[in-house]
Amino acid sequence: MTTLLPLATAAAALLTMLAEPLGWPWLAFVFKPLATLLVIAYAWQRGAAVPAMRRWLRAGLVLGLLGDIALLWPQQGFVPGLGAFLLGHLCYIGAFTRDVRFAARPLAFAGYALVAGGVLAFLWPDVPGELKLPVGVYVLCLSAMAAQAAARALRLRQRLAGTAALGAGLFVVSDALIAIDRFHAPLPAATALILSTYWIAQWCIATALPPSR
Question: Can you tell me the distance from the alpha carbon of 12 to that of 107, in angstroms, rounded to the nearest whole number?
Fold first, then answer.
C-alpha cells in the first residue's frame, strides 16, 4: 500500500489532466474525485497517535473532495467549491493547532500576509463585484492556514511538520494560479499546473499525520 497509493494517486491525477486535451470530460468526472479519495485513503491509515489532529485533517480532506466535485462545474460550482475549501482550510487550522498554538510564529503570518496582500492587490480589479467578499474571505483563511502550518514547522522542527508546511504553501500557489487563470488572463498549461500543485499539496498536508504502527 505504501507504494501503490502514491502511484495510483499520480495515475488518477494524470488522467484528470488529460481530460481537456483529449476532449474526454468524463475522465475528469471519474478520476478527479478518485485522486482526492486516494489522498484520503493515505491519510486514513495514519495518525493513530494523534486522534484529535487526525479528525480535523480528515475533515479538511473530505471537504476538499466536496470542493473538487463542485468545481467539476466551473461556473455553477465555483462558489460552493470555494465554500467547501474555505471550511477545509479552517479544519486544517484546527489540525495544525493541536500541538502548536495559533500564530506561534508571527513572522510566518507576516510573510503570508504580504503574499496574500500582493495577490489580492494584483487581482482585485479583475474580480467581479459579487465575488469580492467570498474571494477575500477565502484568501484570508487560506493564508492563515498556510501561515499556521509554517509556524508549526518552525516551532516543532520535524520533518513531517515541514512537509505539511510545504503542502500548505503549494496550496497557496495552486489557488493563486486558479485566480490568475480565472480572473486575470488564461495561463498556458493551466490545468496541469493547478492540479499538480493541488494534489501534491494535499498529499503533503496528509503527511502531517505520523504513520500508524
Answer: 37
pTM exceeds cut of 0.85: yes
Residue 213 domain-assigned (yes or no) = no
How many domains, in total, are found in the chain? 1
Grid coordinates of 47: 495518525
With a cut of 70, list the residues of the chain below it in pLDDT. 1-2
pLDDT, one tens digit per residue, over 48-80 is: 999 999 999 999 999 999 999 999 999 999 999
Residue 142's contacts (CB-CB under 8 Å, 6 or more residues apart) are 85, 86, 89, 116, 171, 172, 175
Q: Is the dihedral of CA 31, 36, 37, 38 positive or negative?
A: positive
The pLDDT mean for the chain works out to: 96
Residues in CB range of 190: below 8 A, 6 or more apart: 177, 181
Whether 212 maps to a domain, the answer reads no
